[in-house]
Amino acid sequence: MDIRRRNNVSVTGRADGPVVLLAHGFGCDQNMWRLVVPALARDHRVVVFDYVGSGNADSSGWTEQRY
């Protein structure tokens, strides 16, 4: 499975900028970063994603035994 699709990965900002990876907390999804990403993207490459079982991540990756 493609990890970018499974975890709904989005990459924005400057291709030559330093990379910033934003990871949400429990009970949230990458939408929580919507107001921060535009400011960071001016000077950075910004990566946001959804953990398995959150947001628009592929729910087939979640199993009770694993998580």
Into which percent range does the helicity of residues fall?
A: 10-25%
Q: What is the 3D form?
A: elongated
Main β-sheet, spatial strand arrangement: 1-3-2
Q: Using the CA coordinates, give the radius of gyration.
A: 13 Å
Q: Helices and strands: which structural class?
A: alpha+beta
Could you list the spans in which at least 5 consecutive residues all have pLDDT below 50?
Answer: none
Structure summary, number of beta strands: 3
Major sheet characteristics? 3 strands, mixed
- Beta-strand content estimate: 15-25%
Provide the residue-averaged pLDDT.
92
Q: Helical element count?
A: 2
Along the chain, the helix and strand elements come as HEEHE
Spatial separation of the terminal alpha carbons? 18 Å
Provide the domain count: 1
Could you describe the 3D structure shown?
The protein has 67 residues and is of the alpha+beta class. The chain has one domain. Helix content is 13%, strand content 18%. The chain has a three-stranded mixed β-sheet. Helix 2 links the parallel strand 2 and strand 3. The longest helix is centred in the middle third of the chain and has 5 residues. 12% of the residues are buried. The model has no long low-confidence stretch (mean pLDDT 92).
